[in-house]
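User: I'm curious what two different proteins look like when written out as structure tokens. Can you demonstrate?

Assistant: Sure. I'll show them one after the other, since each token string lines up with its own sequence. Here's the first protein:
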Amino acid sequence: MFTELFRQEALKLLTQRYPYVLLGLVLVLETTYILHTASTPPETTLDRVSPVQLWAQGVELGLRFGVYVLLVVGSMAISREFSLGTIKTFLVLPVSRRMWVGAKLAGIISLGLLITLIITGLGLALVAAFSGWGPVVLEGIIKYPQEEVWQAVALATGLTVVFLLPVCALALVVGSYFHSSGAAVGVTLLLWIVLETLSGMLGSGAKWLFPHYLYEPMNQISKMGKAMVFQWDDVAGPGLVVSGASFLVLAGILIARLDKMDITD
């Protein structure tokens, strides 16, 4: 039954037009940034941007806007069920609400994975085509060989996907409190802006907030591209703990919310 619910949720996401439009705008923005940076000659050698650094910066820009796509789609995933009245059909189906929530979460998480892979893949293709791709070299000395670069890119991409889990859950939680999709989207985006702003203001004091870690993998790759020392331990360990705990808490809130909700109203 869960597989069927997940398949239906995936079809809902894939057959809607607006996610493609929003994601297309994000990809255009990422492409423009990478091409502009790659084609602009540096004023000094200190201003030179390495291919690895360019990829990290372009992908981070794409992810910052890609998160908004995920928040919009996620917040509408449940609120539209209420506004259209389709959620009432589950009253006559032998489907538990928790299984339904699990399918919703799996669908949004899959979308987050897809968005991340598209953004990172496009960045790799553009950088390889216009700037080349290779080891990180500083003054003729190889600081990071190409194999290590690829490993870091793969690790950064994987961590980003994990750090997106609480973002997916947050969108669904907020959406469950609204019968209007417009209101759900507006409140979700506003809440995310507040969390990001708070995370930026607190700096290192925001390590207990999951948005603090979302773009850190790309920041580490950017340091690598500058031939600087970077530390995965400062990102992976705390980031996985905070993101995992935040996801479980938000998922629990969502399940509790729907368990107690009278969906006949």
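Here's a second, unrelated protein for contrast:
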Amino acid sequence: MRTLFTLLIISLFSLQAAAQNFEIPAEKYPFSKVYDWTGEGLLLMNDDPSHQTNQKFLTFVGDEPRTLWQETFVPKAENPVFLSSSGTRYLYFMDPVELDNGKFTAYQLNNAGNMKTKTCNYQVAMKKLGYDVNDLELVDIQVTDKALVHLFETYDKETKTNVLIGGFMTHHNFLTYAAEIGRWVEEENRVYYAGYEGDNIAFYQNTVRDKKVGIEFWFMTSKGEKNGAEFVEIPPVIAPIAFNEYGPCGATQLKNKQHIARSIVSFQGGKWQLLYDGNGLVLSTLEKKIWTKKSTLTGVPRGKKGYEMGVYRMREGMLVSVDGSGHFLANSMNHKSKSYSFTTAFNPSRALTELGGSNWAFLAKEHWVFMNPADLGKVGQLSLELKAK
């Protein structure tokens, strides 16, 4: 009898630990926005709906059934742009994303809840490189583990080449650096950002070497130092993919031009991932210089000329957006590849779990946090659910 009672207590404790419903207060104003900080939790924002003040209130929820920390900031713009990446410890708010004579103001937030505001300038760093920052086109902003990276393009008339230039602002001291990342002539050889791991910021381009079709990839550091490039052959491709960047990066706020490439590459969590058209949408990972197929989705809508999509790189795989629907290709057996309907919020964590029903899902370090979308904007307490992974 004692053993049965002990098992019952243990079972009840396990259920309580696995799923906990709790509420957090919306201080002053209802929560108006929610941000998916994949791998950390969720970040809620509330502000004055009458717009008499532009102060923003931030509330973070992670691995515990309570508010872990709160912060405030006062941006110039009414709706500052949120910037993040899969797995990063830092977030940024920008207003606006465009530079003013090389200057920009960054509202930096780390996972400990420390907010810093700094106005930085790329003018001097670009001059040292031989460029006037006002002559460059800003095409993207990416958050990496060690730096906020601005990506610029320009055309070199002397060499008749397109140039990708990086502006690097280190998280810890807000120092700015500039470096040339790569060059290309034909659109099919364009240089793209791939992701990061630690102080390795990855870039690549589709190319041909010794009649072999493949990709060339290399790393830049947070101070703009370049490491040697490496070439790897890729599997046969049915057709190129038309794509643009998707998610909380600078490209989605800028012109975000659509590009066409034989393959799309991601470097997240130390893994090289290759997305391509191979009788279905295929994701492979690089293992000992050989691409190993991990996922194939055949139900992704495909036009007459091939796939057309938005792409978001994740540590767990690749998330693509096609005609308002989401398609996740996993890079391991830990997650399931699937197609699903997108919600109004950008919620990549939703692709990583079947739990939570129709609720928004947010991945913390050791737990899932679930939220009913209908509760956003309501006055009073916000109801959440915490479940162990």
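A detail about the second structure: Residues 159 and 185 are 9 Å apart (CA to CA).
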